[in-house]
Design goal:
binds guanosine-5'-diphosphate; three-stranded mixed beta sheet; six-stranded mixed beta sheet; 350 residues; binds magnesium ion
């Protein structure tokens, strides 16, 4: 799962990336377009408990990979469009996190203007998406047939020309397939992070920004990159104290991961045994057989059935045997829709 942290220079992307991934290089480096990759393990106490219960040799958390993508200043808003390297990096992401500068950056003359950064960024995505769609429409003029694709492209272009992103547009399965080749950016889930002055955090989202995010249907989360950086370097026990002093119950890292999960409509199912206890991220609504394919393609192919017990039930029963004896273990077929926290043992045959 790849999520891009994007935004204008000096908004705090690298600082946030470092705080979230625990990496420390390169904060403050000016305007580098090249991406850096870092993985976050999704904290999950269920994995820890299962590791204890089943005495697993390994524990493996779900992971989200973040990339740090700088939008060049000359790229955005100046009519020049986004840099092709940046566009490519964003195309490869399943979701985008837009960092908005809400603090006074001494390196930049302009005061913070997060609401207008949000508008500019969305406009850039819209302009970027129009190019391949218009090219396609032009080429299709010489062809006949393909009426459905033609209508779809007209509909997308019309929407974008009205200044509306593709996020929230309704598409059928077939339409999604037709559009997938364009790797459009404005349809990707987008989380806005307002990077605030330490003193403003965690209150004080400007009303104009809040209204605008709401109007566009975008989730908005306040963060102070500076505080998060400081927190991420503290030992675990002190982190909790620090947060309590701030009046926050969890770190931005945890809230952020939860938001990303939400935004991507992700849940985790679990597997456990001597070898490992592990969380697997999947899209909500995934059937059992497809979920099995996350573990191994052989298990998907040879799928027979899934033995499923909810995590809470298993934590009380403390073993599969007792869960079975207590009638808590269910046998499910390939179309069963996997739920968050399902502990699954796949039966398969290759
Ligand atoms: N006061 C303050 N400074 C910050 C904050 N976040 C980042 N900075 C500073 O702003 C500058 C730019 O940050 P950086 O993460 O490199 O921005 P990027 O260009 O978006 O990657 C650096 O000097 C950071 O130390 C913040 O929350 N508060
Ligand atoms: Mg940077």
């Amino acid at each position: 799962m790849k999520v891009g942290i994007v935004g204008f220079p000096g908004s705090g992307k690298s600082t946030i990336f470092n705080a979230l991934t625990g990496l420390t290089k390169q904060a403050g480096a000016a305007g580098k377009a090249r991406e850096r990759l870092g993985a976050i393990k999704v904290p999950d106490p269920r994995v820890e408990r299962l590791t204890e219960l089943f005495d697993s040799r390994k524990r493996v958390y779900a992971e989200i990979t973040f990339i740090d993508v700088a939008v060049r200043p000359e790229g955005a808003g100046a009519g020049g469009g986004l840099d092709p390297q940046i566009i490519q990096a964003m195309r490869e992401c399943e979701a985008l996190v837009l960092v908005l500068r809400g603090f006074a950056n001494p390196m930049l003359a302009q005061p913070p203007a997060p609401a207008s950064e949000m508008v500019r960024f969305r406009e850039e995505l819209i302009l970027t998406d129009l190019i391949p769609l218009e090219n396609r429409r032009e080429r299709m003029k010489k062809e006949t047939g393909r009426d459905r694709e033609r209508a779809l492209i007209d509909r997308c272009i019309g929407r974008l020309e009205n200044g509306r992103s593709l996020l929230g547009a309704e598409f059928s399965e077939e339409e999604r397939r037709l559009l997938s080749g364009f790797s459009l950016l404005s349809g990707k889930p987008l989380l806005c992070l307002l990077n605030q002055e330490e003193g403003d955090f965690p209150v004080g989202i400007p009303e104009a920004l809040r209204a605008q995010a709401e109007g566009e249907g975008l989730p908005l989360m306040p963060i102070s990159a500076k505080i998060e950086m400081d927190i991420s370097t503290l030992p675990a026990e002190e982190q909790a104290e620090f947060l309590a002093d701030l009046g926050a119950d969890t770190s931005a890292r945890d809230r952020f991961i939860r938001k990303s999960y939400d935004m991507l409509d992700l849940i985790s199912f679990l597997t456990t045994g001597d070898d490992e206890s592990r969380a697997w991220p999947i899209r909500r609504g995934t059937p059992a057989r497809k979920a099995a394919g996350k573990v191994h393609s052989d298990i998907e192919r040879g799928f027979i059935r899934a033995e499923v017990v909810g995590y809470d039930d298993l934590a009380i029963a403390e073993s599969f045997k007792q869960a079975r004896d207590q009638g808590l273990l269910r046998l499910e077929g390939k179309t069963y829709v996997v739920q968050d926290g399902d502990v699954i043992n796949f039966r398969f045959n290759v």
